[in-house]
Amino acid sequence: MISGTAKLLLFFLVLDIAYCNRPPRFLIDGQTEIVLRLKEGDETPVGTLIYKLRGIDPDGDKLEFGVRKQSGSNVIRVETVSAAEANVYLAQPLDRETRDEYALVLTLTDGRLGHGNYVTQSLLLLVEDVNDNTPVFKPYQPTISIKEDAETGVIATLEATDADEGAYGQVVYHLQESESESKFSISTLSGKGVIRLIGNLDYETQTLHQLKVLAVDRAKQGRVNTGTAALLVKVEDVEDQPPEFVKVQPVARVAEDAPVGTPVLQVTAVDGDRGVNNPIAYSLSSNGIGEEIDLFRIERQTGNVITTKLLDRESTISGAYILQITATEIGSKIRPVPSATTEVTIMITDVNDETPTFKSTSYQCEVPENAPTNTPLTFSANSIAEVYDLDQGNNGTFQLLLKQHGEIFEVTPSKAINEATFLIRVKNSSALDYEVVKRFNLSLVARETVKYSAKSSEVSVIVDVLDRNDNYPEFTKSIYDVWVPENCPVGTTVAWVQALDDDSGAFGTKGVRYTNLAGSLADLLDLDASTGVITVKSSGGANWDREVISRHYLTVEARDDLGNGNRNTVQLVINLEDVNDNAPVFSQSKYEARLMENEANFEVPLKLDARDGDLNGTKNSEIEYSLHGIAAGNFTIEPNTGVIRPKAPLDFESFEGPSTDSTRIVHLTARASDWGDPVLYTEVPIVIYVLDANDHAPVFEELMYNKSIPENIPSGTSIFQVKAYDLDGSSPNNRLVYRIQSGASDKFTIGAETGIISIARGASLDPDLTQPTTILYSLNVIALDGATGENQKKANVTVKINILDVNNKSPVFVNPGMVSITENTPVGTEVTRVRAKDLDATANLRYKLDPTSCRAQNERGIVLTAPEFDCASLFYLEEVNGVLTVAKTIDREVVEIINLGLIVEDNASETGPQIDTAELEIRIEDVNDNNPKFRQPFYKFSVAENSKNGVIIGGVIADDADKNKSVTYTLEGRDDLVKLLYLNKNSGDLVVANRIDHEVYEWLNLTIKATDADDPPRSTRVELFVQILDENDNSPVFLPEPRMLKVPEDTAVGQKIAIVEAKDQDSGEFSKITYLLDRISSQGKFSLEPETGILRVAEELDRETKHSYLLVVEAWDNYQYGYNNGESRNAFKHINVSILDVNDNKPQLDLPKACVTITEFHDPDIIVGKFKASDADDPETPNAQIVSNFIAGNDFDLFYLRQNDSGWLEVGINRPLKGRHGNYTLTIRAQDMGTPSHSTQGDLNICVTDLNDHAPMFLRPPHNSTLKIPENATIGSALVQVIARDEDVGPNGAVRYRLKPDSAEHYKTFYLSPVSGILELHLPLNRSKQKIYDIRIEAYDLGVPSLSSEVDLTVYVSSINDYQPQFLIDEFIANFTENSLPGHEILRLPDTVDRDFYEYEGPVQICFFIVGGNENGLFRLNSETHELSVSAPLDREEQDTHLLLIKATEDCTRAPNNQSFFDSSDDSLLKVIVKVTDINDNPPKFTHRVFTGGVSTATSFGTKFMHVKAIDPDHGPNSEITYHLIGKVKMTLTEGLENLQRAPFIVEKETGSIQLNFDPQQGMKGYFDFMVMANDTGGLQDVARVFIYLLREDQRVRFILRQQPVELRTNIEKFREMLGNVTGAIVNVDEFKVHANHDGTVDKTRTDLYLHLVNRRDNSILEVAEVLKLVDQNTEKLDNVFKEFNVLDTQPGGVTALSSIQKAGTTFWLTASSLFLLLLLLLCLALCINQRHTYQRKLKAATTTAYGGLESDIDGRGLSGLSGRVPNTNKHSMEGSNPMWLKAYENEWYKNTDELSQGSDRDSLDENVLSSADDGNCPIESNRIQNVYQTLPPILPPRKMETTEL
């Protein structure tokens, strides 16, 4: 035991420790100073997290981080993010040029160090340079003026500076790419940009050059900055250019009758040198002919050209003159004087001096009678229908007109220019009748259109009229409509048609022949060609079947001239009359119905349906029904409607059959007969299924059962058996199952099949463990038969079970908890006392330690195990009283936590050992008894000289084995050495405190002391050695040479050209030099060896590309190891390399690729063109000097070649080119003067063009030819090709074609290709509107001026068939079998009829095309035979119906366009509906691979609680599915089902319903697993797996939804899936119910959905609490699901189970309560009747004098006469005085008198109201409301009152 004084000292010690605050410290990984390197500017944006601070506080206090206020401290921001961490953010942008480092102090406090006291930590922030400054140019002169002939050389020098350091601050100069790049260059010399002129300037080409100079820093990676400067170079002009024409009119016109001196045109030229601008003189020269010099002259100063003689256009060949005008400079210093030449064309305009002239003196024409309008007249062969006028424009324009018979004929064109081919056409066709006029005499006039002095000419025209046959046969009827019986025999006369013709002879009626019969029946009929009688040629077939086609359309053709003349057609319609040839057909091949015994009708009404294909509305299609068969007497059928009903309810037991089958089958035969002659009928079988009804209840063998059992009887033990029997004869009505309805309390189960009652699995009958204590169980056992729903019957029996008690309780420890003791506690000290409890009264408890369960661990959590450490031996436990004491001394540094195992045992147990175990946790508290200990015997570090303050050198760590680990460090040694270093006393980090020089101190030797924080403190020392390292602090220095190099451009690659050398005073790697060459300055042409400094040529040099290089060479020390980390130093050197020229470039000829075009009239000595010859070599050397000459192509010496000093080549003409038009190729050679010499050659193409002097001439078609085309010609069809030739060449001989517009606009109907001359149809033709088109075609050349000629063409439109073939029906149904191969099934489509009437050429081929619905190419149609087949197998499940659009056409050459819809008005379209006949090619497929469901222990036997469903895509019988349970039903984790003998479930064959086949009992558990199979009629099948879970009623969850059950059932699978995805469980639906409110009312707008969830891992059913927890945890995920399904609430669903268990007790108490309330109600009624009778008597006395005579005036109302007769009664007649009156008023008894009188009797309180029944003479007003508290008038007549004494 611890004494009181020791406890008090311990208390104060703990109190002192609790209030002793220990300072926090920074955790910076063993470094004394935090050093951060950050890049300036955007590389490190404001807000960047630059460091994470961590700290530690031994007391566990919350830490606060900060930064000490000083210069630059606002550059960072410190934010505390947790109790021991903080983030350091950049608060201001960094700029190295402003400040390159920040020495900051971070602060740390736990809030208890006192105000202003902090733990500090140095932070050094180094700002690294980035390339963020742009080079800036120094002031310079922005404008420079240079003469255009200035020599190359330096013209300006610019300089720019960059504020960055190193390569970022070094500047290189470039010129931005521009057009002036070839004339100027820039180089970098000594940091300046030197601009040079390197090319020739030309003032005339460009007067200003704007140079953009770029100053670029030398950044090798990342961002490169560029500064810009603009320099404007002005070019001053010198005299070096010939004159230039600025105003030239290339073409001018002058009238041929213009007087002498008429101005024609003016030209203007200026000096080519704009800066000199000499005056210009003009002169005129000819083009070689010489005539122009005599006709025109030019004024020398003004450039005006005027006439010198009278002009005549007809005397010229082309009506034009070409003049050459020369402009010469005046006062030029250049010899020869500069001049320029240009050409102008002068056109001579015409005057009217010619007369229109016809090419024939007279014309002979002919035209047939009745020729349609616009028919051209045919000219005789010797007539030329042309007229011409040689004048031009309006002078050559003339009109054509007829003097006589202008109303009958017209001439076209009515107006023409120069020359025209004319036609005479019919204007009025009705006037052309051969029988009236045979010849017309006309006069044709051509007259000019000018207003004054118009000239004209006239010729005669004779027109002969030709006779024609112009009448057509006409039928006597417009349409023939006849009727013929269907299936009529051969030879039957169908119709007689007749046609008449007004012509005579063979052209008239006598010559009419019936030549053709066309239509759907044409091949089955015979047409007499002479009489027109039509008879049947072939009978039978679908065409003569009215049920297939009821009407046929045909066309009959008649022609005159014995069948060879004009034709006409008429339509023949043949109607087929109906005969009785179709028997009735039932809609089904078999009828089935279900009839429950004792029911008056079928479950579904049975009605037969038959159809007759004969004509509706006749006896042939009228149907009557009848029944036949042995059992037909039990049923009746309505003969007209086919409805079948049983005569009386049937008895199931009256039909024979097996007792296991609940169905009896009755067979009948039904007949459907028509009323036709003869009578036809069809029979069909009928199958009726009679179903059994459950009409017998089960009966138990005994009335009651009793049994006694001990409380410790094992679970699952069978106790005894109950038995019952059922008198029903068929299953499942006679199959019984047993269940415990109530009283089992989950303790007992019953075998559903056997009736054996057993102890439930896991159940305990111990009365002491039940609440309340139960020793008697009264079970209510029922027996159920197999009927379902309300038809199920049952029997009850009571079973009583007594429980016998047994002693079997074990002791239990009271929680030992946890205790604490200090280390080194004396042996024998009491630690704690342990206790245990035992429910048995005779318990005898003994305690002991359990050495096997003792566990111990040290302060680091390491478990200490035996035999190294025996924790049980440290303590002793008293056996009887449980006192635990210390047995050995305990050291906390060895063990800190001990878990001691305890055992208690009841020695008085009667059922074997009764033991309980527990664990006691003992914590050992610390005492300071250990010195700190360094982790190393000594410490050795190194640091570079000149290191900045705060650079981390290293760190030391000392450990303390005691609980308090805090250690502080101090540095000991000489003062001059100690001040160089700083040791963090908390972390042990060693950093540089002052600058250290390697030359002064190579080593620092010191001592470090570590002291703990306990009282008294303990300490330890260790030796420290620091080595000072040397660093690189000298830069390389270049030797002065080489500075300039000259290298020939043909120097070989790799050749050495110089050696670069530099020196460094450092030693070792710091003195090793590495040489680098700037690639931008060398442009890859040179290379520098990094080790030796040898400069070599790296690529081929080309002086012409670049003639000099300014190389930038760098020297770096320590490059290999220090360059990447910035520890190298460097120097720069510039070397100017000039490239010497060699003759390595051939001369270049700049000759045009295209032909240089000149006319054949080009004058000699006139320059044809100037061309450039150049050489890229150095122009200062012979390498670039060129000589040129012709080497080929100038055989006739037509051309000369001249070369000037500037390198331009001039090609001119030596002699005239007249008649020498064509193409000339001159080969020119250019050769330089270098050594060796180079030459090149090129071809100059000169095209001498022809003068246009020939008009095109037509080769075909001939003039006035006629072209015949069919009326159905399609747009774009080529009709004819027009060909014309022109004798000229080039553009003058290129011929183009065009249509000439005409007044009738015939030309718009056609299109003429301008190049090929192909005439195409542009608009559709219609012969009924226009038969003849007259068009004129013009051929013209491309010369200037253009020449042309014309030809006339007549287009005649020939007749075609105008009517399209027609289908007689709109729809046609075709059937194809599914998956049938192409070609196996072929179907012929119905024929068409043709309704053409005119110009019919005889029978034509009708072609059918698919124009819609066959986008997938599934069908193939033979266009000629009209046979439809499939091109690929059809799949009915993919598409069961296809719609095709068939187009009939006579154009078999090309398919019609596709159509997207059926136009019923288009009879040439047929809609074909293709129906795909199904075959059994698809197996059934279950909707789920796995079906899950649940059944509760309260579910009744025989209940159908779930369905399995499969779908078969096939149709009809092929899709009928049956379901079967296959294999064995597996039962997993089941309890209480051991005695189940039968299959627990039955799968209904037709519907897939799963029916419960046993009676589940409370206490049963587990789940079932079995396979189901779905079969179709073809044997195809599918299988699925079924899981059914057996659950308690309280394992269901109820979801309340605002949806009706029908609506919810359609979407229940979606709800299950979504809920399952969120919860991760299998969701099974148990039941739907309409929602019932708490008050018992039903809310039909809501549904109660009962579910249970199954764990997917172990198939266990989740308890309700787990499900609700899952729902709560996934509220957000389920939000959309609950909103979509309107989920209102989620509740446990076990209420149903409780209500079923308590149903019997509730029924008893409800019955008793009802009887009690009924007795109470009768008693109340009796009291009410007695009270009512008493009040009735009193009220009569009180109201006797309520109303008196008129003389009474009591209270002013005339009642005083009664007061004396009835004493003391009048005071109760006042308003408000009698409570009964008030009550009567409130209940509204006093209404109108009719209502009161009708309801009154002697005992009614309504006798208080005066009724008219008391006195027949009392005039009471009807329907008047009486109120005794209102005023009483009118006063009723006096009546006799009686008074009853009370």
Enumerate how many helices there are, as a single number: 13
| Spatial strand order of the main sheet | 28-27-36-35-30-32
Radius of gyration: 64 Å
Q: What name does CATH use for the topology of the largest domain? A: Immunoglobulin-like
Percent in strands = 35-45%
End-to-end distance: 101 Å
What's the count of strands? 130
Membrane topology: Single-pass membrane protein
Subcellular location: Membrane
Keywords: Calcium, Membrane, Repeat, Signal, Transmembrane, Transmembrane helix
Organism: Nicrophorus vespilloides
Task: Tell me what the structure shows.
InterPro entries: Cadherin, Cadherin-like_dom, Cadherin-like_sf, Cadherin_CS. The chain has 1846 residues and is mainly beta. It is built from 13 helices and 130 strands. It has 13 domains: 22-130 and 946-955 and 963-1009 and 1019-1029, Sandwich (Immunoglobulin-like); 136-236, Cadherins (Immunoglobulin-like, Sandwich), CATH 2.60.40.60; 244-349, Cadherins (Immunoglobulin-like, Sandwich), CATH 2.60.40; 352-467, Immunoglobulin-like; 469-577, Cadherins (Immunoglobulin-like); 585-691, Immunoglobulin-like, CATH 2.60.40.60; 812-925, Immunoglobulin-like (Sandwich); 1037-1140, Cadherins (Immunoglobulin-like), CATH 2.60.40; and more. The strands form 40 sheets. The protein has a six-stranded mixed β-sheet with strand order 28-27-36-35-30-32, with no helix packed on it. Strands 65-73-72-68-69 form a five-stranded mixed β-sheet, with no helix packed on it. The protein has a four-stranded antiparallel β-sheet with strand order 1-3-6-5, with no helix packed on it. Residues 11-19, 1396-1402, 1695-1704 and 1744-1846 have low confidence and may be disordered. Strand 13 (184-189) and strand 14 (192-197) form a beta hairpin.
